[in-house]
Amino acid sequence: MKIAVWDTYVARPDGLQMHFDILVPAALENENQIYAFGKQYLASKPFKTGSLNSKKCNFCHVENATPEVTTAIHTMGFYILEMENCT
Questions:
Q1: In the chain, how many domains are there?
Q2: Mind listing the pLDDT tens digit for each residue in 55-76?
Q3: Of 40, 42, 51, 55, which one has the fewest beta carbons inside 10 Å?
């Protein structure tokens, strides 16, 4: 499965910046839907976060999905790859 990687940064109230990728099927081009996936992920966090917007969430590239990512996308429609300050 080909996936689109959306590089995302969101501020935390403690001054740290979260960095994560939103992974979606490559054919999904609706930015509002992709931002909604990011907001859903942020709402699951036990701490407050800044807002997600188009200046902080951008298409990066397309790549092949791993089996884990493919399963998550078939189940939830997206996958979040946590990179920095996400916990």
A1: 1
A2: 789 999 999 999 999 999 999 9
A3: 55
